[in-house]
């Protein structure tokens, strides 16, 4: 049936494109497919809005992550991987909040945060620790998401649901769904979903997406480990992760797509009743589907206008003009689709764009095929009237169904009586004569027995074997039909037995590795056997016993596999822990080896203190080890031994030097001529004569520097009155006023982030320029400044830089070591102490003191004493 509805997937621009005046968005496209039957036209209208901005600048996303009991194992891992891909696909301007959903909604990060925020990573970690328990209340989860948007006062909003879509705690039927959809539309929140789980409800997720302007991603079938097919567990995980990444990227793109919310629509009367009764939101990345029914025969172009508003709230007029397509059997499914929409106003329409409409068409075709198979089974069981009603219902919704037409021809052409519905022939009793009545008019088909197709997919029963040749052939009235029916029943029974045997065999092959899947297959087969009609009770009991035995075995294998998996996980965890401990131990051994090599190198270099510190570090790594303790004691011992050797050597050298000096001091020398010192008046005259050059500066001092020092000592020529003026301007004024060069030490100021443009305030007078400068620079900004005289300029710099530029000055200290005293003029010593000096001291005629040593007095003095004695002594 898929080929009959494949035209929707190849949608091309067959619609008429119009450009409306005013504020209408240009190039809005539409397509109108019709099907006319019994004087009424059913149609589907596809509307595409060409929006100028395909995406919003920033969006707040609430991710509803299903943590119910159904989300376990590979399904949970795949869902988490899709969430990670979704978060990674968000832009820096987007914000996200992760909410765990089951019976309650629990935000895992308190506020909306960017994808790179640590709070989002913590939310993912907390999500991994959530146990999958309970069922899901999807309605409460959506209400909680809307409250999060309202508290955050979000602008553009989007909800992304990741789960199976089964809301067991709150079944969302049409009466419950209508107010929830209205709330989503009022809050302008599109709901997009990723359907993943062992069982999913894509129809509910599609309904939410269609009514709120969202999208739906139906997950790929889960890949399982299959040794026979060469699929390892790692390969299966990799494939599932890849599918999850694709889904997450799609969800990230859908979350930022532009959505417009209709507020007013002008639908032409020729379209009759349109569903949904309120126009759904329009998305930039897909079209919107409207269905309806009208008594008019749509042949002329139809125009439709809608007034909608985007995320910014600005109204925009949209207009479409579509030319109806010719009615054809491919559009027959629209009849049942519109019938279902008319019951609830289109609130449960799952038509999410053209793709959703194509899926609905495929489902309708699959329903028709299933009903046709039911008609064949009804024929096999003898219920020809029921089979005819089923076939007529199928042909009403799908006139082009060849298989249903064939069954109808076989039924209408049979002259035999139509047995009542549910009649099961038991076959003729041996010896009983079968009387065949002449054919009579077929009984009328009751109106209340018609089968109505709805939007819910029909779950097919166990597949039946193909009919034997002649099953649908015309039957005569010769009495052989009942025998053929019995033969068909036997064939069906054998086919069912074969299916049960195959199911049991496959389950036993899979129960060792995949017991849960085997259990599901066996339960499904057991249900099919229990519901099978026209099955001998003995055969039914035998088949049920086989399935029950296999089911118990599968349950036991599942329990055994769980125990083995738990044991294997424990062994893997223990092995991983042992491996980690070995790695840590080896790392510590390598670290100790490196430190001991460092210790040996330091010992060779006689750096004993550092070696002892390294030994202390080794002792911290190995507190109970012998090596670090011995190393510390050895380093300490070697250090003390070395210091004692050095001290002993120094003591020996000093002793010999001292003895040598003692020997030198025993060398006598005469005092002829004697050393004569002048009297006090001469020393005073010399002191006054040297006063001009008393201070000797080793650095050269030019005229410019003397002028600067002179200006600094002078009082201010005019008061300094500056209020919040740049330091650079103040310095310029002072330089011009006192005619001295003033510069800034730019490198030093940049090093402490000081600027010459810092504002200073000072009001002072009657002080020297030196004091005024010091006061001003001390309060110039956060860093205190100062000045120095260097290279013939007054340089403003930092205190640290000024301390590195010290000037060396030399002062004579002769007066300190030889104080001026009034020396007595008496000679001799009065006989005390052996006579004393031996005569009066003389003063040379020049008036200068004169002290000389004869060369003979210095030949036995050490070299350093000779150098201190002066040039005369060295001569």
Quick recap of the structure?
With 875 residues, the chain is α/β, with parallel strands linked by helices. It has 24 helices and 21 strands.
Structure description:
With 875 residues, the protein is an alpha/beta fold. The chain is built from 24 helices and 21 strands. The protein has a 6-stranded mixed sheet with strand order 5-4-3-6-7-8, sandwiched between helices. It has a 4-stranded antiparallel sheet with strand order 1-2-12-10. It has a 4-stranded antiparallel sheet with strand order 11-9-13-14, with no helix packed on it. The protein is elongated.
- N-C termini distance: 130 Å
Indicate the CATH class of the largest domain. Answer: Alpha Beta
**Rg on CA atoms, Å:** 54 Å
Q: CATH homologous superfamily of the largest domain - what is it?
A: von Willebrand factor, type A domain
Low-confidence stretches: 1-27, 415-479, 820-875
Shape: elongated
Helix content: 40-55%
Structural class: alpha/beta
| Widest beta sheet: strand line-up | 5-4-3-6-7-8
Indicate the CATH topology of the largest domain.
Rossmann fold
């Amino acid at each position: 049936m898929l080929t009959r509805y494949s035209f929707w997937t190849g949608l091309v621009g067959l619609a008429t494109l119009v450009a409306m005046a005013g504020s209408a968005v240009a190039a809005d496209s539409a397509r109108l497919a019709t099907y006319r039957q019994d004087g009424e036209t059913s149609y589907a209208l596809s509307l595409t809005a060409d929006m100028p901005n395909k995406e919003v600048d920033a969006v707040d996303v609430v991710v509803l992550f299903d943590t119910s009991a159904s989300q376990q194992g590979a399904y949970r891992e795949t869902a988490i991987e899709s969430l990670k891909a979704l978060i990674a696909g968000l832009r820096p301007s987007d914000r996200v909040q992760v909410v765990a959903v089951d019976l309650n909604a629990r935000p895992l990060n308190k506020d909306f945060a960017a994808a790179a925020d640590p709070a989002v990573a913590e939310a993912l970690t907390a999500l991994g620790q959530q146990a999958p328990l309970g069922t899901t209340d999807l309605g409460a989860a959506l209400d909680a998401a809307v409250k999060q948007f309202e508290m955050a006062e979000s602008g553009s909003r989007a909800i992304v649901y990741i789960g199976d879509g089964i809301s067991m705690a709150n079944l969302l039927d049409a009466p419950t769904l209508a107010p929830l959809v209205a709330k989503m539309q009022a809050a302008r929140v599109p709901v997009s979903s990723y359907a993943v789980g062992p069982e999913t409800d894509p129809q509910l997720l599609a309904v939410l997406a269609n009514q709120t302007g969202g999208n739906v991603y139906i997950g790929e079938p889960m890949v399982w480990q299959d040794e026979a097919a060469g699929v390892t567990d790692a390969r299966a995980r990799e494939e599932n992760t890849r599918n999850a990444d694709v889904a997450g990227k799609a969800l990230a793109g859908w979350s930022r797509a532009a959505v417009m919310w209709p507020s007013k629509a002008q639908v032409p009367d020729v379209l009759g009743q349109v569903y949904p009764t309120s126009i759904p939101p329009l998305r930039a990345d897909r079209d919107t589907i409207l269905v309806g029914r009208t008594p008019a025969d749509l042949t002329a172009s139809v125009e439709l206008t809608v007034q909608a508003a985007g995320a910014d709230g600005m109204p925009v007029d949209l207009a479409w003009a579509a030319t109806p397509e010719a009615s054809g059997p491919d559009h027959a499914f629209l009849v049942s689709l519109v019938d279902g929409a008319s019951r609830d106003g289109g609130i449960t329409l799952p038509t999410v764009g053209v793709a959703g409409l194509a899926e609905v068409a495929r489902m309708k075709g699959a329903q028709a095929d299933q009903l046709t198979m039911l008609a064949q089974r009804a024929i096999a069981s003898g219920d020809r009237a029921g089979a005819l009603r089923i076939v007529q219902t199928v042909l009403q919704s799908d006139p082009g169904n060849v298989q249903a037409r064939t069954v109808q021809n076989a039924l209408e052409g049979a002259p035999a009586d139509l047995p009542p519905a549910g009649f099961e022939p038991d076959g003729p009793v041996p010896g009983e004569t079968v009387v065949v009545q002449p054919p009579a008019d077929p009984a009328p088909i009751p109106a209340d027995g018609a089968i109505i197709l709805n939007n819910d997919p029909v779950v097919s029963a166990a597949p039946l074997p193909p009919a034997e040749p002649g099953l649908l052939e015309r039957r005569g009235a010769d009495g052989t039909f009942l025998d053929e029916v019995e033969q068909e029943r036997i064939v069906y029974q054998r086919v069912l037995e074969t299916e049960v045997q195959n199911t049991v065999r496959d389950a036993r092959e899979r129960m060792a590795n995949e017991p849960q899947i085997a259990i599901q297959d066996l339960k499904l087969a057991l249900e099919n056997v229990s519901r099978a009609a026209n099955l001998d009770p003995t055969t039914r009991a035998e088949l049920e016993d086989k399935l029950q035995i296999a089911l118990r075995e599968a349950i036991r294998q599942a329990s055994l596999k769980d125990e083995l998996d738990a044991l294997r996980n424990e062994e893997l965890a223990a092995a991983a822990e042992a491996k980690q401990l070995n790695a840590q131990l080896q790392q510590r051994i390598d670290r100790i080896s490196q430190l001991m090599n460092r210790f040996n190198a330091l010992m060779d270099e006689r750096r004993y203190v550092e070696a002892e510190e390294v030994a202390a570090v080794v002792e911290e790594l190995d507190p109970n080890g012998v090596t670090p303790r011995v190393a510390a004691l050895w380093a300490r011992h070697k250090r003390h031994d070395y210091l004692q050797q050095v001290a002993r050597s120094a003591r020996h050298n000093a002793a010999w030097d001292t003895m040598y000096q003692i020997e030198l001091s025993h060398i006598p020398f005469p005092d002829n001529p004697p050393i004569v010192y002048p009297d006090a008046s001469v020393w005073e005259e010399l002191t006054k004569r040297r006063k001009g050059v008393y201070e000797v500066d080793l650095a050269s001092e030019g005229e410019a520097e003397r002028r600067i020092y002179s200006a600094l000592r002078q009082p201010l020529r005019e008061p300094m009155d500056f209020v919040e003026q740049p330091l650079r301007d103040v310095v310029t004024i002072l330089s011009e006023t006192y005619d001295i060069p003033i510069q800034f030490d730019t490198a030093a100021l940049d090093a402490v982030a000081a600027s010459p443009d810092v504002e200073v305030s000072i009001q002072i007078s009657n002080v020297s320029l030196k004091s005024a400068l010091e006061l001003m620079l001390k309060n110039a900004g956060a860093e205190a400044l100062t000045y120095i005289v260097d290279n013939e300029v007054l340089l403003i710099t930092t205190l640290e830089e000024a301390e590195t530029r010290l000037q060396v000055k030399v002062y004579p200290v002769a007066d300190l070591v030889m104080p001026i005293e009034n020396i007595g003029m008496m000679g001799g010593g009065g006989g005390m102490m052996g006579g004393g000096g031996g005569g009066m001291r003389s003063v040379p005629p020049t008036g200068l003191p004169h002290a000389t040593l004869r060369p003979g007095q210095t030949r036995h003095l050490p070299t350093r004493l000779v150098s201190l004695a002066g040039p005369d002594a060295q001569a």
